[in-house]
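During the second half of the funding period, the structural biology subgroup turned its attention to how the target accommodates small molecules. The most pressing case was LASSHYVV, which had performed well in the primary screen but for which no bound structure existed. We therefore specified the complex as follows and requested a full 3D prediction, including the ligand pose.
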Amino acid sequence: MPKFAANLSFLFAEQPFPERFARAAAAGFAGVEYLFPYAWPAAEIAGWLRDAGLQQVLFNLPPGDWAAGERGIACLPGREKEFAAGVEQALAYAEALGCRRVHCLAGLRPAGVDEARLTATYIANLRHAADRFAALGASVLIEPINSRIDMPGYWLDDVGRAFSLCAAVDRDNVRVQLDLYHAQIIQGDLARTIEANLERIGHIQIADNPGRHEPGSGEINYPFLFALLDRLGYAGWVGCEYQPMTTTEAGLAWLTK
Ligand SMILES: O=C(O)C(=O)[C@@H](O)CO
Ligand SMILES: [Mg+2]
């Protein structure tokens, strides 16, 4: 079986954030990920990780004004200075937390800006982030997210384009974060997509479809895909980014099966 990380923005959400670390460790997870660390001092989070014996696997770069509906700024012309400042903030957290992967949200498609300009801005910002994180030996990940159900208007909403943008950025430490829930909604054909692009996949996330609940609650054949990842020698993490149907612990039966 692959290595599973608990996404603390989704799992153990019955508890206040600081308490989720110990709950994840008690449930058998060795690693954790979550959307954003910035509301807490890095030293405090490092303490929660240390006390629980957990590895910090992933978090996101600052996304712009999340509360106002922004979902990243990497493709947005005119926001480059803010993007670069966010990279520096995330670098400090990654260093303090020993984290070697960050996800860079692309942003929502702005009205009236042509596609070539969005693509050029995105590639330039990603190169900047990749070069800064290379000093830490860390990877910058890009994730195709479905714009039909979960993130209407999201610019990077195509799996094939994520892999071709990853190639166009042309940095060894830029990889695709393949969230199999989003990929299933966007296009399906999950096994072939993994097999054809394995060397560009830096992280995997899971949830079943429909509903974004536990593996086994929907149409995706996760036992088949986990066996495929083992057979292909995938050495990365698999982040559990799903909404438990009842409680987190009750929903973890799929992990022990
Ligand atoms: O929504 C997802 O899927 C994610 O992985 C998030 O990091 C995007 O905000
Ligand atoms: Mg995801």
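Two results from this model are relevant to the next phase. Residues 3-256 form a domain with the TIM Barrel fold (CATH 3.20.20.150). The longest helix spans residues 115-134.
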